[in-house]
Design a protein that fits this description.
The protein is built from 3 helices and no strands. The chain is rod-shaped, with a radius of gyration of 28 Å. By secondary structure, it is an all-alpha fold. The two termini are 54 Å apart. The longest helix has 70 residues. Helix content is 93%, strand content 0%. The protein has a single domain, classed as Helix Hairpins (Orthogonal Bundle).
Length: 159
């Protein structure tokens, strides 16, 4: 994925792909009618995981914008300091205005990035919860089917 700190999401996507392949193989051995029933929840979970990934990419872009604005503010501060030592008062005033404008933009963007980050984290948590719950439901169903199969085999062997 390339997003720092999102190894958990990458691991979950990998797990979903492996589960999809296992379900596909099992469904193929039982017949094609079950395959779509078993794979659809996995496909939904996979789509949700990709939606979370897109949210994280947006967050990364906003953070990059924030860092660029911070750099611009630092440059404006440096220009203001240099202008203050010069005799040119007009340039110093313009630089101070640029610093103030950059600081206001930085504050506004910082607030927006913080809000976006918090929203993305909440959405990521909700999506991850849904994915894990669906995966657990599928595992329970799979194990129940295995238990029934073993019970039938045991009955056949006892007869």
């Amino acid at each position: 994925m390339g997003l720092t700190g999102d190894a958990e999401l990458a691991r979950l996507l990998h797990l979903l792909s492996q589960s999809a392949e296992a379900v596909r193989q099992r469904a193929h051995s039982k017949g094609a009618t079950e395959e779509s029933e078993l794979l659809e929840p996995l496909r939904d979970a996979h789509r949700q995981a990709h939606a979370v990934e897109l949210l994280l990419r947006r967050r990364e872009a906003r953070l990059k914008e924030l860092f660029e604005l911070q750099h611009a503010a630092e440059n404006a501060r440096a220009k203001a300091a240099k202008a203050a030592t010069d005799a040119n008062t007009q340039l110093a005033e313009s630089a101070a205005a640029a610093v103030q404008a950059a600081e206001r933009a930085l504050e506004s963007t910082t607030t927006a990035v913080r809000c976006e980050f918090q929203r993305a984290q909440a959405e990521k948590k909700a999506a991850m919860d849904a994915i894990v719950k669906e995966y657990l439901r599928m595992q329970i169903k799979h194990h129940e089917e295995n238990a029934r199969t073993w019970a039938e085999m045991l009955k056949q062997m006892e007869q």
